[in-house]
Amino acid sequence: MTKSFDLIVVGAGSGGLAAAKRAAAHGAKVAIIEGDRVGGTCVIRGCVPKKLLLYGSLYKEYIANAESFGVKFKDAYIDSSILLSNVRKEVDRLNSIHINLLHKSGVELINGWAHFINAHSLIVESNCDNKRFREVKGERILIAVGGYATRPSITGSELGWVSDDIFLQNKLPKKMVVLGAGYIACEFSCILNSLGVSVTQYVRGHSLLRGFDMDLSKVLEENMQVNGINLNFQQSIISIKGNIGNLNIKSNLGEESITGAVLFAIGRKPRINDLKLFNSGVISKEGRIIVDEGYQTNIPHIYAVGDVTNLVNLTPVAIDEGRVLADNIFSNSSRKVNYKLIAKAIFSQPEVSTIGLTEDQAVADYGQDNIQIYKSKFNSMATALPKRGSPCLLKLIVETSSQKVIGCHMVGEHASEIIQMAAIAIGMGATKYDFDKTMALHPTIAEEFVTMR
Ligand code: NDP
Description:
Layout: E1 3-10, H1 14-25, E2 30-34, H2 40-45, H3 47-57, H4 59-66, H5 80-105, E3 108-111, E4 113-116, E5 121-125, E6 133-143, E7 147-149, E8 161-162, H6 163-166, E9 175-179, H7 183-194, E10 198-203, H8 214-226, E11 230-233, E12 237-243, E13 246-251, E14 256-259, E15 261-264, E16 268-270, E17 284-285, E18 288-289, E19 302-304, H9 315-330, E20 344-346, E21 352-356, H10 359-366, E22 371-378, E23 392-399, E24 405-411, H11 415-427, H12 432-436
Parallel strand pairs: 1-2, 1-6, 2-3, 6-19, 8-15, 9-10, 9-15, 10-11
Antiparallel strand pairs: 4-5, 5-6, 7-16, 12-13, 13-14, 17-18, 20-21, 21-24, 22-23, 23-24
The chain binds NADPH dihydro-nicotinamide-adenine-dinucleotide phosphate (NDP).
C-alpha cells in the first residue's frame, strides 16, 4: 500500500536530516529515505572522520616536539590501523545517534534508494538482500541527496581511491599520490604525511587552493614542503596501471613512478543520476538541481537543498537551508539563509581559514588604491622550545574610506577557531578601528589581529 506524507526527504545527510526533523517538529508527517548510512557525507565519510584522523595525525608533531618540553617517550609512533578502526567506531556511534534522533522526532526512516515515478511519488528499492520495492507519496518532496567525489577520465582511474575509500582502509600504504589542490587534496596530503605515508601531490595549476588568498596558499605550500610533502606543480596523472599497493602512474610529463595508492581529490558533483528526475519534471542544469531563493525547483512542491544544488557545498549551509525551508513551509515564517560572509577552513597542517574578500577580489571590487592591507607573519610561542613548526600569517584587508574590514585571513595554529570568532565582528561590519580598540589577549596568536599597524 502506498503511504502518503506531508514531506518526503530524499537523502539523510546534513541538509535532509535538518529539514526532516524541523518539519516534524512543526507537526508535519515526514519520511526520510536513505540508501546508504544515515548521516551523509559529513558524518560518515567527510568532515567528521576527517577531523578525527587529523587529530590523530597531529601527534606526529607532538611526539617530535615532546623532548624539548621535557617529555620523553620510548618508541612512540602512530599506529594508523588503530586510528582508522577507532574512527570507524566513532562514526558508527554517531550514525546510531542520528537514527535515534530521527525516531525521537517522529520521522519515518525508509532504507533504500529512491527514484521518481511521477511528480508526487517515489519508488524506494530496499538495499537489503530482499530487494523489496515500496511506493511512497509526498505532498511535498525535498531532494537532499548531496554529491559524490569524481574521478578523472584517465586510463586506470578505477584503480584510484576517492576520499570515501580512505576511511575504509585497515592499513595505509607507505607511499601515496594525491591528485588535486583543493580542500580535500590539501587536507589529506597533510594527514597522510603525518601518519607516515610518503605523499606526492600533483597540482595541475601553479598554486594550491585556487580562489583563496594567495598569501595563505604560499605559506601552506612552503610548510607542506618543509613537512616532507612532494608538491608537483603543473603536473597531472595521465594513466594508472597495476594493482592497489603497487601502482604504476604516468604523469603528463611522461615520467613514471610506483606508488601504493592514488587519491583523487578533484572535486565533487551532485548525485542526481539515479533519481529519474525526468519522471518528476524537475529540471537540472550542468548536473545540478536548479532552485530559486526558497529552494523551490521548477516543480513548485519539489525542493532541493545542500550539495545537490552545487551552490555553497558546506555542511552548515546545507543544515541552515534545510531548517529555513522547513520553517518557511510548515510554520509560515519567511526566514532566509545568510550567505554573506561565510567563513571557511581547510584543515591542513597548518590550518588555513578565511572570511571575506581575498586581496585579488578586493582589488577587483574596490581598486588597488582604495584598500589597505595589513599582514603579520611570525612564529608562534609554541615553536620556541622545539625550534621548529609552521609560521603563522594573519592578514586583514580594509576598505580605505569606510575603514571596514572586508577580508580576514589566517594560516596557522587554531586558524579555524580564530576566524570563526572574527566572523562575528566582520559580519557586524567591524572597522579597523574596532579591531584596534580591542584590548589584546596576551600571549596569543589572535592578538596580532588587534595590534596590526
Ligand atoms: P575542490 O573544488 O576544492 O578542488 C578541486 C581541485 O581539483 C582543484 O585544485 C582543481 O584544480 C583540481 N582538479 C579538478 N579537476 C582536475 C583534473 N582533471 N586533474 C587534476 N586536478 C583537477 O574539490 P575537493 O574535491 O577538494 O572538495 C570538494 C568540495 O568539498 C569543496 O569544494 C568543499 O565545498 C567541500 N569540502 C569542504 C571541506 C572543508 O570545509 N574543510 C573539506 C573537504 C571538502 P584547479 O584549482 O586548477 O581547478
